[in-house]
Amino acid sequence: MTLKLGVPSKGRLKDGTFQWFGERGVTLSLAGTYREYSGSVKGVPGVELVLMSAGEIPRELQGGRIHLGVTGSDLVRESLLHWRTETEEVAQLGFGHAELVVAVPRCWIDVDTLDDLDDVASAFRQVHGRRLRIATKYHRLVREFLKENGVADYLLVDSQGATEGTVRNQTAEAIADLVSTGETLQANGLKILSNGVIHRSQATLFQSRQAGWGTSEMAILKDLRTRLGS
Amino acid sequence: MTERALEAELTRIAAAFVDAGAEMVEPPVLLSARSLLDLYGEDIRGRAYTTRDPLAGELMLRPDFTVPVAQMHLDMGREVGRYAYSGKVFRTQETGATRPSEYVQVGFEVFGDHARHLADAEVFSLFSSVLEPMRLRAATGDIGVLMAAVLGLSTTDTRKAALMRHIWRPYRFRELLDRFGGRSPIPTARAELVEHARRIERTPETGPVIGLRTIDEIEARVQTLVDDAEAPPIPSNEVSLIEEIVNLREMAPVALSRLRRIAESLPGTAPAVERFAIRLDTLEANGVDTSALSFEGSYGRTTMEYYDGFVFGFYSDARPDLPPVATGGRYDALTRALGGDGAAPAIGGVVRPALMMELS
Predict the structure, then answer these.
(1) For residues B216 and B221, what is the distance between their CA atoms, to the nearest angstrom?
(2) Does the beta-carbon distance from B43 to A150 stay under 8 Å?
(3) Which residues of B touch A196 (CB under 8 A)?
């Protein structure tokens, strides 16, 4: 039996993952040309490399079609309601750091906390006759976070990209998005609320609890974990 | 549980509601997501199933009957109405929950009956009699008492409005009460802003003015914060009284005497407490043993956001793991929220027959 390891097929996440495994004596490599999405693993016998979109890795882990997978922890938490029971963190890979945050215009000098945001949402609804809009693609994480913090009278609007621009374009009043350096926020006249960090994300190696874990798979995993030091 | 037994139970309960003067209605299963979102906010998305229609846009499978029935009543332009219904509701379940996500409810709603104490007692007694053979425990509450207490506090209207807005979010309500009562400190950034705003006329420029919220709105809120910082804290005895109401759990007659004592110090509460007293008398006259009726000051605060008066639920003591077999309450403010002319009296409730079958 082989252990299936899902790895992002392109971009920084892919390069970082290849490097991280390589530094630990586990060489991931692509077969044939760089356009071909199949590859191999050297250093630990019995591991099969599966390249796929980072966004699909949570779903594959959930379905147990891969045993292990590398993706951003934000994606796992957003797409898997039961991420705590369906997956387990094997290792945090120490790159791809980003924070999912709630941000508002810097000109809102009266808003620093979620408490302020809630208060403003109430006033906004009275003045404008509709709910304050928060643009995001992380609907579930944001909704749960705002509910826990007692923020009401807002509406989530979907934004799959260029979310920082939505406030200037007047399609939202605030945003909740992944931020790494904060430069894009700054350039778009936004600031992060002081208690507005929803999740600190990084590239993480997850284990699926749904996949078939027989004695041979467990043995391969043990081998791999020893190699990775995790 | 057989399908046939469940059908028979549905028919029996619906017949009891029709005997009480209700006409059977069949509200749609697909509701406009917009009106539900308007009413409940984003939280509803965590509870209801959302779907899309190429023409009508976003729709939701009905998470309850109350809203579509109230909407039907408003659309018919009637003053008064009594309705019964029977059908499925659809709710996404929380993490780890094992309850079904679609189940049948049979319900009864009364609109426009201004003799509120009579309608309260009638609806409670009706549900009580429908559930009679089950030997369930009834829990009651009255959100109107807590609302009256909040409105009667010696503090600013802004603070009262903030507390009223979070009546249905107990955790946040508690946080605000602590802040307004001077028990928790003002956040540093806010204190600094208030200090700054007091010293100079205009507020500092910190970034480009973007978005729909205007400079006027921002400055108005800064002024509100300054005013709030200058307002004295809510007196500690009043904060304690609110806490006493929120934590109250007694049999109804004891609860009444404690609420009457609270109303001596918080006179704004008195009319709501007397309405509670009249309701108890009426229930007693209807044959309900009120000395065995439990009353909870926070009952109904964590359920749906529209209850604003008498609330009740029927529970099995043998199976505390199960949700209530029946729930209901008064929701006068809902018709206004749905676009009616004003708050019209409304009360109703639902039974979950599948739970009755599970218990018997």
Answers:
(1) 9
(2) no
(3) none
> Which residues make Cβ contacts (< 8 Å) with residue B64, sequence separation at least 6?
B89, B105, B304, B350
How confident is residue A28, by pLDDT bands cut at 50, 70 and 90?
Answer: very high
Q: Is the CB of B212 less than 8 angstroms away from the CB of A128?
A: yes
Give A103 to chain B, closest Cα distance, Å: 13
* Residue of B160, B221, B225, B304 to mutate for A, most A C-beta atoms under 10 A: B221
Closest CA to A104 of A150, A163, A161: A163
Give chain B's residues under pLDDT 70: 1, 94-97, 200-205, 303-305, 340-343
When computed from its CA atoms, the radius of gyration of chain B, rounded to whole angstroms, is 23
Structure tokens belonging to residue A74: 């934000």
**CB pair distance less than 8 Å for B189 and A81:** no
Report how far residue A57's alpha carbon sits from residue A14's, in angstroms, rounded to the nearest whole number.
12
Chain mean position to CA B157: 22
Q: Which two tokens stand for residue A173?
A: 């009043």
How far apart are the two ends of chain A, measured CA to CA in Å? 22
Residue with tokens 């100079």: B200
Residue type for position A194:
S
> Which of B:144-163 have CB within 8 Å of A?
161-162
Tokens representing residue A34 in the block: 């760089």
In this structure, which amino acid lies at residue A222?
K
Both structure tokens of A188: 């778009």
CB contact at 8 A, A12 and A20: no
Nearest to A107 among B169, B189, B206 (CB): B206
- Give the pair of three-digit tokens for residue B210: 């973007």
3-state secondary structure (DSSP) of residue A158? strand
| pTM, entire model | 0.87
Angle of CA points B182, B188, B192, to nearest 5°:
105
Nearest to A81 among B95, B169, B209 (CB): B95
Supply A71's token pair.
């993706």
Q: How far is A157 from chain B (nearest CA, A)?
A: 10
ipTM: 0.84
For chain B, the straight-line distance linking the first and the last C-alpha, in angstroms and rounded, comes to 9
Q: Are strands A98-105 and A190-201 parallel, antiparallel or unpaired?
A: antiparallel
**What pLDDT score does B196 carry?**
79
Interchain contact A147–B (C-beta under 8 A) = yes
CA distance B76 to A184: 52
User: CA B255 to CA B253: how far, in whole Å?
Assistant: 5
